[in-house]
Amino acid sequence: MSDYEKFWDAPAETLTREAIRDLQLKRLQSTLDRASRSEFYGAKFKEAGFDPQSVKTLDDLCRIPFTVKQDLRDSYPYGLLCEPRDRMVRMHVSSGTTGQATAIFYTRKDLDSWADLVARCMYMAGARPGDVFQNLSGYGLFTGGLGFQYGAERLGMLTIPSGAGNSRRQIQIMRDFSTGVIHIIPSFALLLMDVLTEQGIDPREALSLKIAFIGAEPHSEEVRQRIEDFYGIKAYNSYGLSEMNGPGVAFECPCQNGLHVWEDAYLVEIVNPRTLEPVPDGEYGELVMTTLAREGMPILRYRTKDLSRLIPGDCPCGRAHKRLDRIQGRSDDMFIIKGVNVFPIQVEQVLMNIPEVGNNYQILLRRQNNLDEMLVRVEVTDRMFVEDMRRLQGVLKKITHDLKGELLLTPKVELVEPNGLPRSEGKAVRLIDQRDM
Ligand code: AMP
Ligand code: ZN
């Protein structure tokens, strides 16, 4: 296979580490120059006594002040623009996982390079011109809709903007148009599994799916496995955030071992969230990102709050772009119960390894008699077996035992019949903390 068949953008994807670093320095310098024109960075640089001209090597990166979500809120709506407002042609907002949303603006050129990055990701994972692509992502202000739409059109796929929700219609569309490639958030992919099962449809027989791009919310390897096994497809992890355009920031290659960060477009750092000092590759910490190719609204050293690590070593696919490990969760999602730090994804890993556990669960934190309590509510796979007390007790014991092994505390576990737990249409809400209510 020639390089031009393997790569969407061979010149960018085959850059050596050295070439990546050279390009990054050049782009960082011009990004700094651009950023200092914005009201926000102009003031921030002055306040921090930082001279953007003083960046001479990539090691100088650590002198650039961080940007946090609150900065974006404080300069809402236009404070980070470094081009006149009338040069902006699109706006999105962050999904507001936490607190007030923030607005992101794109020039025509920004949209063009974003579409190209998304196309690059999908092509890398095996999507090809002519494929039928169904985007089961919310459209509108959320970036997963139009972000994938334009990327897929750029790639040359027949793109169906089916949007989020409406499971039965989604399945009908998949059947009518022989959809081969989908983009879907993992919790919706799990929900759709239940609907297909209810309808007695085996997707391996009745559908033509081959690839799914799953992302936009934390999910475990176990969830990926379930999705791949049930649909008979390959599922690739897609990471992005609106502050860095949206999807197209980091994506899995066919090796499925980490997500390549497109380092020609983004500078990636992992820092210790307490000291904010960079940590070496291989160590976990907070992901910090800088845009290198955005003209309307560059963002420097953005603290994503997402926790992960960079995987050391080379990827067998040949791309030198660093690999980000699966996101462990957001630092905001971590909760402390009885002195133990817990990420929802740890609970998910345990649950999804138990075959009797269905596709939906919820973690409830509450205070009972002044004591914190963690209740894990779990849907079971089979309605019939809710009536089989002995089996039920066995599953309950197994879940409690395995969770205790992982978390080192004993949660309460409650089994719920299939479809017994609430579903959300966008990103799943897995954690409900009622302790301060
Ligand atoms: P938004 O600002 O609406 O684009 O949401 C971005 C956030 O979604 C990120 O900061 C992550 O917390 C989360 N996210 C996106 N993609 C993934 C992924 N593949 N795995 C885990 N979390 C993700
Ligand atoms: Zn690779």
Distinctive features:
437 residues; alpha/beta; Rossmann fold; GMP Synthetase, Chain A, domain 3; nine-stranded mixed β-sheet; four-stranded antiparallel β-sheet; 13 helices; 32% helix; globular; binds adenosine monophosphate; binds zinc ion
Give an overview of the whole structure.
With 437 residues, this protein is of the alpha/beta class. It folds into 2 domains: 331 residues, Rossmann fold (3-Layer(aba) Sandwich), CATH 3.40.50; 99 residues, GMP Synthetase, Chain A, domain 3. The protein has 13 helices and 21 strands. A 9-stranded mixed sheet has the order 4-3-5-6-7-8-9-14-13, sandwiched between helices. It has a 4-stranded antiparallel sheet with strand order 10-11-12-15. It has a 4-stranded mixed sheet with strand order 20-19-18-21. Helix 6 packs across helix 7, helix 9 packs parallel to helix 11 and helix 12 packs across helix 13. The mean pLDDT is 95. The structure holds adenosine monophosphate (AMP) and zinc ion. Adenosine monophosphate (AMP) binds next to strand 7 and strand 12.
